[in-house]
Amino acid sequence: MLEGAEFYFNVDHGYLEGLVRGCKASLLTQQDYINLVQCETLEDVKIHLQTTDYGNFLANQTNPLTVSKIDTEMRKKLCREFEYFRNHSLEPLSTFFTYMTCSYMIDNVILLMNGALQKKSVKEILVKCHPLGRFTEMEAVNIAETPSDLFNAVLVETPLAPFFQDCMSENTLDELNIELLRNKLYKSYLEAFYKFCKNHGDVTAEIMCPILEFEADRRAFIITLNSFGTELSKDDRETLYPTCGKLYPEGLRLLAQAEDFDQMRRVADHYGVYKPLFEAVGDGSGGKTLEDVFYEREVQMNVLAFNRQFHYGVFYAYTKLKEQEMRNIVYRSSSFEVPIL
Amino acid sequence: MGSLFRSETMCLAQLFLQSGTAYECLSALGEKGLVQFRDLNQNVSSFQRKFVGEVKRCEELERILAYLVQEINRADIPLPEGETSPPAPPLKQVLEMQEQLQKLEVELREVTKNKEKLRKNLLELIEYTHMLRVTKTFVKRNVEFEPTYEEFPPLENDSLLDYSCMQRLGAKLGFVSGLINQGKVEAFEKMLWRVCKGYTIVTYAELDEPLEDPETGEVIKWYVFLISFWGEQIGHKVKKICDCYHCHVYPYPNTAEERKEIQEGLNTRIQDLYTVLHKTEDYLRQVLCKAAESVYSHVIQVKKMKAIYHMLNMCSFDVTNKCLIAEVWCPEADLHELRRALEEGSRESGATIPSFMNTIPTKETPPTLIRTNKFTEGFQNIVDAYGVGSYREVNPALFTIITFPFLFAVMFGDFGHGFVMFLFALLLVLNENHPRLNQSQEIMRMFFNGRYILLLMGLFSVYTGLIYNDCFSKSVNLFGSGWSVSAMYSSSHTPAEQKKMGLWNDSVVRHNRVLQLDPSIPGVFQGPYPLGIDPIWNLATNRLTFLNSFKMKMSVILGIIHMTFGVILGIFNHLHFRKKFNIYLVSVPELLFMLCIFGYLIFMIVYKWLVYSAETSRVAPSILIEFINMFLFPASETNGLYSGQFNFGEILMTQVIHSIEYCLGCISNTASYLRLWALSLAHAQLSDVLWTMLVRVGLRVDTTYGVLLLLPVIALFAVLTIFILLIMEGLSAFLHAIRLHWVEFQNKFYVGAGTKFVPFSFRLLSSKFSDDVA
């Protein structure tokens, strides 16, 4: 595509970009968080949220209020906004939106399959599924017994289909295989999304590629961390790493050989981006966990995405920021449910 | 001049409300709408305030009421709106009201839940019957095939294996049937094919009548389907897929008798359900009708109560915690009323210690209150849109009442158009109590709110139209023109004299395309037309030049008078705020500058009008050149530096900037008033074009067809006149009149940095249902 998004971007996507920037202004501020900290009950949280852009979103909920009600309503609100964006988008922005939903779809599929494995009813699990990743065929996921079954019968017509190229196998879906499936799907998904952004070029590529690179590397680190002490072989582990990050290829090869956290940290030391992140991690007794540090870095990148104009990254960044905000509110709210000792 | 000239004097008052009487006192205050509360708890977040519990209770009541209204609306029961608004409920009644409402809600929810359940049941049964009816057609085919199963084996006696297999399959032949949403049929069939790899037979048919979804009330089209399959494994899968696509699956009868039995059973059950459902609906209606009687007053009462608690949340407690302290802004004229309201409130609650108030001196700027009536309101809104006036400064709205319609009319001068506008506004004014107009939306609402402005604008346009002598771009000869063409033929002179004086004769008239009337010839010009422009100009080719010169000069004169008036109003402000030096050092120099340059310009214009007559017009100097020369030949002097200069510092800078701004402003503002001329010209030309392009074309056609043609021509003329000349041009003239007021006039004196006085008044609460339902 031609360079110079500023010449034509607004023709197709100007309205939506304006809209998403307006939505971004409705994110909670520092002052709001200070007030949230002062809250003592869920009712307080509700009253405070009423003064923000969330408005009366809990007005029709009958008492008693629970964290899950707040969470569901917040998700619904985000979903409504997202649907609005998506319904008003033109190509290639709509493909971009489809890519964005894919990650939620993967999560939902895996969630449902895990549920089927534990013999839970579909309805019970459906409540937990992320509304952004909802699709009709989703509920039929548990008729499949092997990954290729899953692909052929259920997912062949969904946007997830192209990501199955690496994971067609006849293994029965036990817990480990489901986890492997998730990671493989995610790997293909990230790589495809990265390729899409790269091919799109322009500001979108400049903004989205670093974010996706970071996402890929984060997954590589987390996979490594979680595989310590499991039966996953090092070769298998390497096949799960997404190859679109900064760590590819040497870093990933080193990570595959890592055997404990320190070795992992040593790999990260080779990279200027990740060295400070690992340095910020506290040592067991307290401080931040690796995940917290990654979250912080992600939020930072998403906020910076709003500094540039004429690109799709703002939609991605807004969704991610809103999700982080929802996590914050739920985290804050859930402290009321358990008795504080 | 009274209250419109300056905003009212305000004072800060402290109310000491005994905690037992605070609610009643505020209720009394809210009914009267006298005071504006100041928030004394600005640093306290909304959920930590004193009366948050009560506010929450109000919200709960609001939720219940919204639910009631929603149910009542859904049942199509009319909601009676009371004429009088009930007062806020006494505290004793609140609990009762809450209990009553909660009971009502529980009952209502139960009944509606029952009803929904019944309706869902009914729907299921109906769906089942539909399914049975439709699948019958599929089954007929099956019945035909059925014997072949049994007749097959004897034909193929030798293939025993096949036969037993067939038997086995035949025994396990299963059916799943049900209904599926129309939009999902295709995907459903595809997935069945993919999963079961073709070991199924799907037949489906569209259901002829769409069914209503009891939850959303949506009407959905359904398909009835029948899947036949072999084998248990596949059966499980099929069932799961049915679940996935939210199919409504019903048991499929194996034999014809069973089918008949089921159908009969269903029919009786449906009948039963109908009767039960009707009874439930009747009961629900009764409950709702009863609720509908009181729901309006409850909504208003709860709103008032919530407003009172919001205000109480702004008060602070005194040290003893026995009384609430509120700080309010109150117009001095209303202090007496305020005291009375407090007494009333105390009396009502039967408290022993009455609530009382103190005025306290303050350095803070009070809010601005300008009382308006329905006539002045529109004009005040024009001014407020620019900026709410600072406390006690001169309010331009008073003068805007006349100047605004006048400046508009200068640009919109056409008494035909003006009269139409006047009639329209008059219609609005005469029917202003009509409920349809009061509740109108958007553009109509805008016109309605500005009806008095429109009325004056129309009237003034009629006046300026008369002055311009323009009626739908034509001039009207009311008094007889002051010019005489026949005098140009005067035959009392000798031919030589005639030639010298430029008199006309036959050859002149025949050979010249343009003829000129000469006012210096006796008898040609008999004196000015009594009112406005002489209609003979309508025939003249140099009409435009003449009118331009006239309108341009008029614009400058009007503009300078307007601006000078603004500067003089500034003096009133300085006098009021005791800024003596501002008068000497700002207003007087401003006036001097303005009058010495532009005042002189006006003088020159008027002088030229008065002194030069038709005879001397050829030697009259150009004002423009005179005016420019005045600037081009100033005595150039160099001002030397002198010792002992002191540091003006910032004062000098701001003063210099202000002076430069003012001087440049004066020039550009005066030029800006030329828009009066430009728009007036544009308006006149546009209506002229409309006339020549349409009506004149229509009038020229010969009489037989002309009548037929004239009808559509006149209709088109009327439509274009209204939309282009009245509405579009009117809006543009309105816009420019606003600009002249806001920028050119008001920047001479108006600061507009005030805050509006917003009293705590129940009247400002919306009293409509639609708002809280939405």
From TrEMBL, chain A:
Leader sequence residues: none
SUPFAM superfamilies membership: V-type ATP synthase subunit C
The organism's place on the tree of life at top rank: Eukaryota
UniProt xrefs under Pfam families: vATP-synt_AC39
Gene3D superfamilies noted in UniProt: ATP synthase (C/AC39) subunit, domain 3 (1.10.132.50), V-type ATP synthase subunit C domain (1.20.1690.10)
Subunit structure: V-ATPase is a heteromultimeric enzyme made up of two complexes: the ATP-hydrolytic V1 complex and the proton translocation V0 complex.
Task of the protein: Subunit of the V0 complex of vacuolar(H+)-ATPase (V-ATPase), a multisubunit enzyme composed of a peripheral complex (V1) that hydrolyzes ATP and a membrane integral complex (V0) that translocates protons. V-ATPase is responsible for acidifying and maintaining the pH of intracellular compartments and in some cell types, is targeted to the plasma membrane, where it is responsible for acidifying the extracellular environment.
Identification of the protein by name: V-type proton ATPase subunit
Organism this protein belongs to: Felis catus (Cat)
Gene that specifies this protein: ATP6V0D2
UniProtKB/TrEMBL annotation, chain B:
Family: Belongs to the V-ATPase 116 kDa subunit family.
The protein's name in its UniProt record: V-type proton ATPase subunit a
Record-annotated membrane-spanning stretches: 406-430, 451-468, 554-572, 584-607, 705-728
Function comment: Essential component of the vacuolar proton pump (V-ATPase), a multimeric enzyme that catalyzes the translocation of protons across the membranes. Required for assembly and activity of the V-ATPase.
Pfam families with a match to the protein in the record: V_ATPase_I (PF01496)
Membrane topology reported for the UniProt record: Multi-pass membrane protein
Annotated coiled-coil segments of the chain: 94-128
Keyword Magnesium: no
Record key words, sorted: Coiled coil, Hydrogen ion transport, Ion transport, Membrane, Transmembrane, Transmembrane helix, Transport
UniProt cross-references to InterPro entries, sorted A to Z: V-ATPase_116kDa_su, V-type_ATPase_116kDa_su_euka
Cellular localization per UniProt: Membrane
UniProt keyword Magnesium, yes or no: no
